[in-house]
Design goal:
With about 180 residues, the chain is mainly alpha-helical. The chain is about 55% helix and about 5% strand. It is built from six helices and two strands, in the order H-H-H-H-E-E-H-H. It has a two-stranded antiparallel sheet with strand order 1-2.
């Protein structure tokens, strides 16, 4: 769980993107340190978000973007009926299991971004009202988008965790290294 983003080897753009992605993943992973599944499912604010729900969401979103870039079907694709389940643990799921799932996705993302022929290679964006019609984005864009997506939710996780037990990001870093 990275707390300082190391600088990449000179010219290693892929390494830089992956280091920043991992730094944001670490912030979300730390948000559930020392919590039970029940505590991680708590929603201490007006928001519907919980720490376990955020954890599940970011792991599935990363997989979704990876599959789009790979041009492969997403085995965790949500439908209108299952959309809300992407933000909460359901029967048989746990924080520990979700962390393990995300570790696998993270490994696959790293392998993909390190081996794709060029960060300039592109893939189509999905049809959505917020994306331009028939737009394509680069693998570099994918890396930066994952940083943005995970960081947005890491901020949510900071607020939720502090609302639960008063622990802020710095305390969680210390707890992680204790």
């Amino acid at each position: 769980m990275v707390t300082h983003v190391p600088s990449e080897a000179h010219g290693d753009e892929r390494g830089a993107l992956l280091n920043f992605i991992e730094a944001q993943r670490g912030a979300i992973r730390r948000s559930v340190l020392g919590l039970t599944d029940e505590q991680a499912a708590t929603r201490p604010s007006a928001s519907e978000l919980s720490l376990s729900g955020l954890l599940k969401h970011v792991s599935e979103v990363e997989l979704s973007w990876l599959r789009m870039a790979q041009g492969r079907p997403n085995e965790k694709q949500r439908t209108a009926e299952t959309w809300a389940d992407g933000f909460r643990l359901v029967e048989g799921e746990s924080v520990r299991g979700t962390l393990a799932f995300w570790d696998g996705v993270a490994k696959e993302t790293e392998e993909f971004l390190r081996t794709v022929p060029s960060l300039d290679d592109t893939f189509p964006l999905p049809e959505a009202p917020w994306f331009p019609q028939d737009a394509r984005v680069s693998m570099r864009w994918l890396g930066m988008h994952l940083i943005q997506e995970i960081a947005r939710h890491a901020g949510h996780a900071d607020i939720i965790r502090e609302s639960l037990d008063g622990k802020d990001a710095y305390e969680l870093i210390a707890l992680e290294h204790a």
